Amino acid sequence: MKKLALVATLAGLSAAALAAPETFNIDPGHTLPRFEYNHLGYSFQQHRFDKTSGRIVLDRAARTGSVDVTIDAKSVNTGFALFNGHIQGEDFFHTEKYPSISFKSTSVKFDGDKPVAIDGNLTIKGVTKPVTLTVTNFHAMPHPMLKKDAIGANAVAKVKRSDFNMSKNVPYVSDDVSLSIAVEAVKE
């Protein structure tokens, strides 16, 4: 019985030694961060960013990982060029001085071999605050067209504009903002 336990332990250690982190590059064509806020109580407005880059490193067997995302703040897309320029101004994203938004993970939490939450630091307009992204969907499989391993996920978080020096028009335009990131990434 002791020999069986020893063999099982050694087999488990051997499998863990074979597990290795995998690095995935974010696919900018299928990664669209969005944000949503209440506009004067009339509606929840949704806008997106069109340019995103970064990488995700996962070791699903060891339940570890990291996420590093950079969003081009000048790629904000409200559907109206005039409004794009308005929220790129000094009162909001101030893209002339702060052209990018970044998220760098500090830890990744797993349920089994799937990430379910990512703690990290979100930097907007030169201000860095801790944020937890809740992963609402995760999928890993070989990409049917690229013939490489790929992952995809959806993650959400809530932040306050005032935490990032963007409180103009609060409370008429909500301080609370919902962030939503749809991401796909392909293995290096």
Major sheet: size, sense and barrel closure?
8 strands, antiparallel, barrel
The CATH superfamily is identified as: Lipid/polyisoprenoid-binding, YceI-like
Q: How many E-type strands?
A: 11
Number of domains: 1
For this structure, the CATH topology is Lipocalin
Structure class? mainly beta
CATH architecture: Beta Barrel
| Order of strands across the main sheet | 1-4-5-7-8-9-10-11
Query: What would the principal axes of the Cα set say about the shape?
Result: elongated
Q: How large, in whole angstroms, is the Cα Rg?
A: 20 Å
The percent range for helix content is 10-25%
Distance between the termini: 44 Å
What is the tally of helical segments? 2
Structure description:
With 188 residues, this protein is mainly beta. The chain has a single domain, classed as Beta Barrel (Lipocalin). It has two helices and eleven strands; from the N terminus they run H-E-E-E-E-E-E-H-E-E-E-E-E. It has helices at 2-18, 81-87; strands at residues 22-26, 32-39, 43-49, 52-59, 64-72, 76-77, 100-111, 114-124, 127-142, 149-160, 176-187. Strands 1-4-5-7-8-9-10-11 form an eight-stranded antiparallel β-barrel. A hairpin with a 4-residue loop joins strand 4 (52-59) and strand 5 (64-72). The longest helix is centred in the N-terminal third of the chain and has 17 residues, at 2-18. The chain is elongated, with a radius of gyration of 20 Å. The termini are far apart. Mean pLDDT is 92; it is low at 4-11 and 13-17.
Kindly summarize this structure in a few lines:
By secondary structure, the chain is mainly beta. Helix content is 13%, strand content 54%. It has an eight-stranded antiparallel barrel with strand order 1-4-5-7-8-9-10-11.
